[in-house]
Design goal:
Radius of gyration of chain A: 18 Å
Low-confidence stretches of chain A: 1-20
Number of helices of chain A: 6
Structural class of chain A: alpha+beta
Distance between the termini of chain A: 32 Å
Number of strands of chain B: 24
Distance between the termini of chain B: 90 Å
Order of helices and strands of chain A: HEEEHHEHEHEEEHE
Number of helices of chain B: 19
Number of strands of chain A: 9
Strand content of chain B: 15-25%
Largest sheet of chain A: 7 strands, mixed
Structural class of chain B: alpha+beta
Oligomer: heterodimer
Shape of chain A: globular
Helix content of chain A: 25-40%
Chain lengths: ~200, ~700
């Protein structure tokens, strides 16, 4: 019996990790439940009936810094909030890796970055990130009022860390939010995300 | 004299006017510099200047398509009027998997050559300065954008340029190796969740396609991180890619272009949407499949796994009867150390020789292109029938019906020793033949790996497997304390031997059952007849042996016995067995709560996945005892039946009892060379999860529950 359980453990160790299906625009956005910076449990379902923006971030990433140091990201967040849009910023960096925050640092994140997001969600195990197949920071998603994925991809069409590129960039997120607000179909619903690799747990 | 001096001076100045291998710039995580292929350039000519990146260990820069993240290196040139710079000639990149993501880029050192063309108006004798602003993202775990202002001075001179002694070689090599069109034609088609890319052409015929990989130029057309399953065809290959974001847009891509990397060669290809050419598929995966699992094992690890697998194999149900026999013989020699040691070694040699022979046969058959895997010999009904009779013969021998060797009289010490050695060797061989269909944990990835490697590597793994398998008995013979603990030989041994005959009868019965699954009911009559004839022959032989021992000659009886034995063996293996009707294979066997299943086919799997159902695929074979035990223990319980019902999971059974190229290909895709293999696909599609090779009820129930939400 003992040997059997040893065998079993050995065999389990050999089993391949699970793989997930890719999220698809127009279909239900993957549900999730995670803790926010204040330790409160938050889930996507509590925002049903509202447009929700998901933003993956990492303080140390030069591509994220391009959007935050210039104030462009905060502007986008505040503009969206004014329109009643829920903005959730997610960090999927694993403990010990770049961008990971906890405790006071997480609580202070909003103030440090003068962020205008509704909440900072902590995903150190990378469950939400993997469910959305989030690849980069930033990586943006918009979930519409019906809970369907309306946009996924990059924040704009200038895949570089150079702050000068903000000028003249076509911001896909603000364009998609305008489309949704006006009741139009989202013109660019999918685009290439760009930035730093999300520092997932192994 | 003065003229000579002037010439020397001119030559000297020329040397000084050589392209100063421009100042390298350390940008933090790499050293960047511009290097030229030639010492000079003629007016109107084109040369190559490369951006050289000497990258810190562990860091990397990116290809033109950086993959899931990252950013390609860019060069902005500032050139004198009339001078032009072309695009970077990108060397084929390397894959850089990070967590669930995949990037494409370069490590250590890379040369990015750029064609530079001088205007016809360029004045010989002048030296121009080429300026490049190079911008690149360098990443390890974290990413740092770095840039460098680089310059290179290049003299303009008429005539053929002298090669730059340091860089002309490396740049020429980089240019020659860079992916270029090679007359390959491509086509792609989106087939549900798969993007099939077919490529055909001379360059692919007969090539080793095992490491083939498609690097797309556009970063939105495929999901970079997903494996690219390879299927060979007579004229090329088909890759099963996963469509990327671009296919979710209203205007799906109409062309797929990029670099097809085949071993150390790479080609630029462009495929249009359309019908896939015949000749790009049909031959299964290449011999060296990467697969999702097992592909990354190295030889030492594979050999270690194989050794462990061999050890564990001793505990698998299929080898038990044989080991019982070995135990009996060991007990017989427990108190004669030298004899025991000789036997231990003979057993080891028998095991190793048989493993090697089987491995060689397997490699040879696979080299011939046949789709066979581990345990293949048991896919042939005549072999199974032959083995069934062999088991019966061994059982009859243990029961004392007849003796192996000359006669009972020959129990002289020398002879016994000799016969003992041959017997031990034979036991080893028999153990391997019967053990082959049992894959033990650790053994499966090692064998899956071995069968995709070169012959020496494969043989090493098989040898390690044999060593592991034989180790317990061989070592037992050499550890004195161990043997002396066994009871002293005596009359009890005869009883013990006769008791051990029964597992052997069991083994024979099991093989007969396998045979009927393979070859139908008519085979049952035939094998049973052959068995009875064999038993009669064995009895007659035994009678002759005893008479002979008593001094009487019973040549006739012995002759008839031997003839009958031979006839039985012949009847079992010739003529070949007919293929049974399809109905035979689906006889479920009286489980406690049979879960309804369907025969596996890739189409059924796809259909169930399209319907949003979880799928459980059981790769099994009647001759695989581990598979049978799993089915009885874990797959027929009420709890599992309930779990199937609750999760709505579809149960597909891939029966490999007989040869089946489709199943073989599917096993290979998962890095396996044999059964069992259990895959659970989630309700939302995606890759299957591999379950352990020994199942429990709880494990299956949990896997099905997980699959429901996945």
């Amino acid at each position: 019996m003992l040997s059997r359980s040893i065998l079993l453990a050995a065999a389990v160790a050999l089993a391949a990790p699970a793989a997930y299906a890719a999220p698809v625009v127009g279909q239900a956005a993957p549900a999730f439940t995670v803790k926010d910076a204040d330790g409160k449990t938050r889930s996507l379902s509590e925002f049903k009936g509202k447009t929700v923006v998901l933003e993956w971030t990492n303080d140390g990433c030069p591509y994220v810094q391009k959007h935050y140091k210039s104030g462009a990201m905060q502007g986008l967040q505040k503009g969206a909030s004014k329109d009643g849009v829920v903005w959730l910023t997610l960090i999927s960096s694993a403990p010990g890796k770049q961008g990971y925050v906890e405790g006071a640092q997480a609580k202070g994140w909003k103030a440090t970055n003068s962020a205008g997001s509704t909440a900072l969600l902590l995903d150190p195990a990378g469950q939400v990130g993997r469910a959305y197949e989030a690849k980069t920071t930033p990586h943006m998603y918009i979930v519409d009022k019906a809970g369907k994925l309306a946009y996924m991809g990059g924040i704009d069409d200038k895949p570089t860390a150079d702050p000068a590129s903000l000028k003249g960039a076509n911001n896909y997120v603000s364009a998609a939010l305008s489309d949704i607000k006006a009741g139009r179909p989202v013109a660019t619903a999918v685009s290439k995300p760009y930035g730093c690799t999300i520092k997932y747990s192994e | 004299m003065t003229r000579l001096f002037a010439k020397l001076l001119a030559a000297f100045t020329l040397v000084w006017a050589l392209p100063a291998a421009a100042q390298p710039v350390d940008t933090g995580h790499l050293v960047a510099e511009l290097v030229a292929r030639d010492q000079s350039i003629a007016p109107g000519a084109t040369t190559y200047v490369a951006l050289r990146q000497k990258i810190d260990k562990g860091w990397h820069t990116y290809w033109r398509n950086s993959g899931d993240s990252g950013e390609a290196t860019r060069i902005a040139w500032t050139l004198p009027a009339g001078w032009t710079a072309g695009d970077i000639v990108w060397p084929a990149p390397k894959r850089q998997p990070t967590g669930p993501l995949m990037n494409y880029g370069y490590q250590d050192e890379v040369l990015l050559p750029v064609p530079i063309t001088a205007p016809a108006s360029a004045k010989p004798g002048e030296t121009v300065t080429l300026k490049a602003q190079a911008t690149f993202l360098v990443c390890e775990e974290i990413c740092v954008p770095e840039d460098a202002e680089l310059t290179l001075s290049l003299p303009v001179r008429e005539g053929l340029a002298e090669p730059n002694p340091q860089w002309s070689g490396p740049i020429a090599k980089t240019l020659a190796a860079a992916p270029a069109p090679a007359g390959l034609s491509g086509a792609f088609a989106k087939q549900g969740e798969v993007l099939a890319l077919a490529v055909t052409g001379e360059a692919l015929k007969g090539a080793d396609l095992a490491d083939t990989y498609f690097f797309p130029f556009d970063s939105t057309v495929i999901d970079h991180a997903k494996p690219q399953a390879i299927e060979r065809g007579p004229d090329g290959l088909t890759l099963a890619l996963t469509p990327g974001y671009a296919f979710q847009q209203p205007q799906a891509p109409k062309t797929l272009s990029g670099v097809l990397s085949v071993g150390d060669k790479s080609y630029e290809i462009s495929a249009a949407e359309g019908a896939l050419p015949a000749g790009a598929a049909g031959l299964g995966p290449p011999a060296r499949t990467g697969g999702a699992a097992g592909g990354s094992l190295g030889l030492p690890l594979a050999a270690a796994f194989a050794f462990l697998g061999g050890l564990i194999l001793n505990l698998m149900p299929c080898v038990f009867p044989i080991l019982a026999m070995k135990a009996a013989s060991l007990a017989g020699h427990a108190h004669e150390r030298r004899a025991a040691q000789g036997q231990g070694l003979a057993f080891l040699v028998g095991v190793l020789a048989t493993f090697l022979a089987l491995a060689l046969a397997l490699i040879a058959v696979r080299a011939g292109g046949a789709a066979v895997g581990w345990g293949f010999q048991l896919q042939s009904p005549p072999v199974v029938a032959g083995l069934a009779l062999l088991m019966l013969a061994v059982a009859l021998n243990l029961s004392g019906v007849f003796e192996v060797g000359s006669s009972l009289q020959g129990v002289g010490t020398g002879l016994a020793g000799k016969r003992g050695l041959a017997g031990a060797f034979f036991t080893g061989a028999l153990a391997v033949v019967v053990a082959a269909p049992c894959t033990a944990p650790f053994m499966a990835p090692a064998l899956g790996w071995a069968l995709t490697q070169s012959a020496p590597a494969a043989l090493t793994v098989f040898l390690a497997l044999g060593l592991g398998f034989a180790a317990p008995f061989a070592l037992a013979a050499f550890i004195p304390g161990l043997l002396s603990r066994l009871p002293k030989p005596g009359p009890w041994m005869d009883g013990f031997k006769k008791l051990l005959a029964f597992p052997m009868y069991g083994a024979a019965a099991w093989l007969v059952w396998v045979l009927t699954l393979q070859a139908g009911d008519t085979a049952l009559a035939r094998i049973l007849m052959a068995a009875i004839i064999l038993a009669l022959g064995a009895w007659l032989l035994g009678v002759a042996q005893r008479r002979h021992a008593g001094g009487a000659s019973m040549l006739a009886s012995a002759g008839v016995g031997a003839a009958l034995t031979l006839a039985a063996a012949l009847a079992a293996i010739w003529p070949n067995y007919a293929e049974p009707g399809a109905a035979v294979a689906s006889s479920g066997g009286g489980g406690k709560a049979d879960v309804p299943y369907e025969a596996y086919s890739p189409e059924k799997l796809a259909a169930a996945q399209a319907a949003g159902k979880p799928v459980f695929v059981n790769f099994t074979a009647a001759w695989c005892v581990t598979c049978q035990v799993n089915e009885r223990v874990a797959l027929t319980s009420q709890a599992v039946a309930d779990a199937f019902q609750q999760s709505g999971a579809v149960y597909l059974k891939a029966d490999w009892t007989r040869k089946d190229a489709e199943i073989e290909a599917e096993l290979a895709k998962h890095g396996r060379a044999g059964v069992p293999l259990y895959l659970v696909y989630g309700a939302k599609g995606g890759e299957g999860v591999i379950l352990p090779q020994i199942l429990t009820e709880g494990l299956v129930v949990r896997a099905l529950k997980d699959a429901q939400g996945r």
